[in-house]
């Protein structure tokens, strides 16, 4: 079964402190859904039209599991805490294997 991934890119974060409230709820929700944090922030080398701002990568054992974790009640509560001042490009993608 192909793995599933959450990929989030944050082009703009105007209030990093409010983002922390989201993270406190999102972390447990992701783990409860079977997600494993592979990368959050850290060093980035951007090429072409790349973005050097925060990038988050989370792995799940399957694509359906990744979708279900996003749709879970716990994660939906976390989304409510995501501040308006955060611009995020979020995708759920299927791995090759």
What are the salient characteristics of this protein?
3 helices; globular; 97 residues; 4 strands; alpha+beta; 36% helix
3D architecture notes:
- The chain is α+β, with helices and mostly antiparallel strands.
- The longest helix is centred in the N-terminal third of the chain and has 17 residues.
- 14% of the residues are buried.
How would you summarize the topology of this molecule?
Elements: E1 4-13, H1 16-32, E2 36-40, E3 55-60, H2 63-71, H3 73-81, E4 86-94
Write out the strand line-up for the largest beta sheet, numbering strands in chain order.
Answer: 2-3-1-4
In whole angstroms, the N-to-C terminal distance is 6 Å
The total of helices stands at 3
- Fraction in helix: 25-40%
- Helix and strand content put the structural class at alpha+beta
Global shape? globular
N-to-C series of helices and strands = EHEEHHE
Radius of gyration: 13 Å
Protein name: DUF1330 domain-containing protein
Domain DUF1330: 3-96
InterPro entries: Dimeric_a/b-barrel, DUF1330
Organism: Streptomyces albospinus
Give the structure's gist in a few sentences.
This is DUF1330 domain-containing protein. The protein has 97 residues and is an alpha+beta fold.
């Amino acid at each position: 079964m192909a793995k599933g991934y959450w990929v989030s890119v944050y082009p703009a974060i105007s209030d990093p402190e409010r983002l922390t409230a989201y993270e406190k709820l999102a972390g447990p929700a992701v783990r409860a859904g079977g997600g494993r944090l592979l990368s959050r922030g850290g060093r980035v080398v951007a090429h072409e039209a790349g973005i050097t701002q925060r990038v988050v990568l989370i792995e799940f054992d399957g694509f359906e599991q990744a979708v279900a974790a996003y749709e879970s009640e716990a994660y939906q509560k976390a989304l409510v805490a995501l501040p308006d001042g955060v611009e995020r490009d979020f995708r759920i993608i299927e791995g090759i294997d």
